[in-house]
Amino acid sequence: MSEKHQLTLKDIARELGLAVSTVSRALKSHPDISEETIKLVKEYAEKHHYVPNLLAVNFRKSKTFNIGLIIPELVHQFFSSIISGVLSESNAHGYNVMICQSNEHVDDEKKVAKALLNSRVDGVIISLSNETTEVAHLEEFLAAEIPVVQVDKIIEGFDTPKVIVNDYSGAHQAVTELIKRGYRKIAHIRGRLNVHHSNERFRGYAAALSENDISYPEHYINVCEHLTQEEGYHFAKSLMASESPPDAIFCVTDLVALGVMRYLRESAINVPNEVGVIGFSNWQLGEIISPTLSTVHQPGFELGEKATALLIDKINNGLDSPNEQVVLDADLIVRESVR
Known about the structure:
The chain has a six-stranded parallel beta sheet. A four-stranded parallel beta sheet has the order 7-6-8-9, sandwiched between helices. It has a two-stranded antiparallel ribbon with strand order 10-12. Helix 5 (77-92) runs parallel beside helix 12 and helix 8 (167-180) packs parallel to helix 9 (196-211). The protein is built from twelve helices and twelve strands. The chain folds into three domains: 9-52, no CATH class; 65-165 and 300-327, Rossmann fold; 167-298, Response regulator (Rossmann fold, 3-Layer(aba) Sandwich). The termini are far apart. By secondary structure, it is of the alpha/beta class. Keywords: DNA-binding, Transcription, Transcription regulation. InterPro entries: HTH_LacI (IPR000843), LacI/GalR-like_sensor (IPR046335), Lambda_DNA-bd_dom_sf (IPR010982), Peripla_BP_I (IPR028082).
């Protein structure tokens, strides 16, 4: 460490392999941190002459009443409902919201995160891009004493408040309903392997099948990179052309399910009598197509509202306050796409 460089919380966190928030709490002997970690952090800080940046602390005490919101897509029914919830709760507490879009790209996410950091926001709400696997760019906020709340798409190891839906339960409900209605050869078009909610939906799918002594061949699991209608169409075509085509398809999102439905319609495969389809999200478009799409409802407005409430609590009470995880229910909606 250069003598000209003033040691920061981020430096200590990097050297000790800890989260910035953990280092901050350890230096304050927070009861949630183990004595061993507190001792490790304090000894390192003393050895390397760590001095709190009082100028930065005082700077942070001056609120701007602006919060940042980073969302993968703005023109998207589910994320639009999250935005509405964030705006409703923030307006009720006198906060302005700076809305940014990552376009599902981690590089764009890093750029807008840096812009929000430079804009002196009081806190940040983020739904991570599908490409995000590490959060150094978000640790920058915690190092600057700016709280972060994750919503919907999260990284479990990033120690912040989180607001999610019960993706496991939603998927489990969907696949159990398919089984109850006589479907046995159930395929799953899932999201990326590194995305938390995609993994939870897959777990719910697999558990429902296992509980009913139903196995699935490897080709029944297809992984979307971008969660597009085109991927749904492509995977439906591949599944139905296989030696053992499914009699039902559970999709990671409604958009993917719409692609599946389009392929089945164009191929004169009857939905729901020959193939049942269930999506996830409850897009309004699913109520308009024929047959109407069965789906799992995600309460986007409530997700945004609760994430904002947690963020404002963090702004008022500091990073050392508990990091709560809120899990909202995901409810199955049965429509015409299952028999």
